[in-house]
Write a structure and sequence with these properties.
single chain; globular; 9-stranded mixed β-sheet; mainly beta; 279 residues; 30% strand
C-alpha cells in the first residue's frame, strides 16, 4: 500500500493510492497515518478496505507521510563512500543523532535556509517508519517492527553542524529540514530495502546517484541497534544515511543559496520536489 496525507499543514487527511494512482480518503477507516494506524492490526484494517469504495480526494498539497512523529532519528556516515568524501572514518558502530520534529514537512514544501546560514546542504535518504514499538529488539525480529519506508531529504547546515561546537543537532533540526514522503510504502511492497536506487538533483544537475546496497549498516541492524538505546514507538522515523554527492563533498564545496529547485527520489518510494527559500 502507498499511504499519504493530503491537505494544508495541520489539516491533512489520511489517504491511500488506488490502482490508478489516485488518492482516496481514508478518514472513515483511520483518523490519521499515525500512531495505532501503523500497528500491524491498523495496517491490516486499511488493507482490508477496497480503495475503490472510498471517496476520491482532490489533488492538493501532500503533507508529511506520517503524522504526529514522536522521534526523528538519523544515522550519520552510513555509506562508506559518503564518509570518504567528507574526510571521516567509517564508523565502527552506527552514529545516531536526532532531528527536531518541528523540522518535519511535506515532500514538496519549501525548504527554508536558516538565518545566518552559509552552508545549507542536501542529503537523500531512505526513511524507515516504525509500526510495532519495542525496546531491546533482536535483530532477527527487527523487520517485524517496520511499518514501511519513505523518501527523506536530510537537509543540513554544515557550519551549524560541524563548526559551531557540540553535537550535530544544531545543523540538522532547523524548520523544514525534514521533508518526508510523498508516501509511506508498506514493507510488503519493498522486497529488499538494501537494493534500492536513490538520487538527488539541484536545478537539474544530478549530484547524488547511489544505492542502499552500499550502506554500512542495513535497516535490520539499525532498527535493532537504535532500540538498545531508546524505545521505538509507532510513527517514529529512522533516516538511514546518505550516499555520496552532498554539497560538502564537491570540489569546490557547493551549498544552497536560495531560489534553487531540489528533486530527489528512491526506487519504488516516489519523488520529492522542493524550492529553496530563506527564513
Amino acid at each position: 500500500m502507498k499511504l499519504l496525507r493530503i491537505g494544508a499543514p495541520g489539516q491533512e487527511k489520511p489517504a491511500i493510492l488506488d490502482t490508478a494512482g489516485k488518492p482516496r480518503d481514508l478518514s472513515s477507516v483511520v483518523s490519521d497515518i499515525a500512531g495505532a494506524a501503523l500497528l500491524p492490526e491498523g495496517l491490516a484494517k486499511i488493507a482490508a478496505t477496497d480503495p475503490e469504495t472510498l471517496p476520491e480526494l482532490e489533488a492538493g498539497r501532500i503533507g508529511p507521510c506520517v503524522g504526529q512523529v514522536g522521534k526523528f532519528i538519523c544515522i550519520g556516515l552510513n555509506y562508506s563512500d559518503h564518509a570518504a568524501e567528507t574526510g571521516a572514518e567509517v564508523p565502527k558502530e552506527p552514529v545516531i543523532f536526532m532531528k527536531a520534529t518541528s523540522a518535519v514537512c511535506g515532500p514538496n514544501d519549501t525548504v527554508l535556509i536558516p538565518r545566518k546560514s552559509v552552508k545549507t546542504d542536501w542529503e537523500v535518504e531512505l526513511g524507515v517508519i516504525i509500526g510495532k514499538g519495542g525496546v531491546y529488539i533482536d535483530e532477527a525480529d527487527a523487520m517485524d517492527h517496520v511499518a514501511g519506508y519513505c523518501v527523506v531529504n536530510d537537509v543540513s547546515e554544515r557550519e551549524f553542524q560541524i563548526e559551531r561546537s557540540g553535537t550535530w543537532d544544531k545543523g540538522k533540526g532547523c524548520d523544514t529540514f525534514g521533508p518526508i514522503g510523498p508516501w509511506l510504502v508498506t514493507r510488503d511492497e519493498i522486497a529488499d530495502p538494501q537494493n534500492l536506487d536513490l538520487w538527488l538533483e539541484v536545478d537539474g544537475h544530478r549530484y547524488q546517484d547511489g544505492s542502499t546496497r552500499t550502506m554500512v549498516f542495513g535497516v535490520q541492524h539499525l532498527v535493532s541497534y537504535v532500540s538498545q538505546f531508546m524505545s521505538l514507538q509507532p510513527g517514529d522515523v529512522i533516516s538511514t544515511g546518505t550516499p555520496p554527492g552532498v554539497g560538502m563533498g564537491q570540489k569546490p564545496q557547493t551549498y544552497l543559496k536560495g531560489g534553487e529547485t531540489i528533486e530527489l527520489g528512491i526506487e519504488g518510494l516516489g519523488q520529492q520536489r522542493q524550492t529553496v527559500g530563506r527564513a
